[in-house]
Specification:
With about 80 residues, the chain is α+β, with helices and mostly antiparallel strands. It contains 2 helices and 6 strands; from the N terminus they run βαββββαβ. About 25% of the residues lie in helices and about 25% in strands.
Amino acid sequence: MHPRGIPAIRKGDIIEGLEAAKKIEGVTVFHAGTSFSGSNIVTNGGRVLGVTALGDDIRSAKVRAYEAIERYISMGCITEKT
């Protein structure tokens, strides 16, 4: 996931929903372009998060990962689907 505006990267957008996303079984959220602003996690440029998941097969793993992104994570981002 990366913030809107690449290559003119926006910084400082609050990322919400990370804890809820991580509660989905098998989901792991990796931080890349994130930072703290007070008690908030915010975008800090580039590809901000990597969201991965485990499943019984590739399809079910993808469904879990995208469920975490679409239902919980909010930061005004663009999701690169594979």
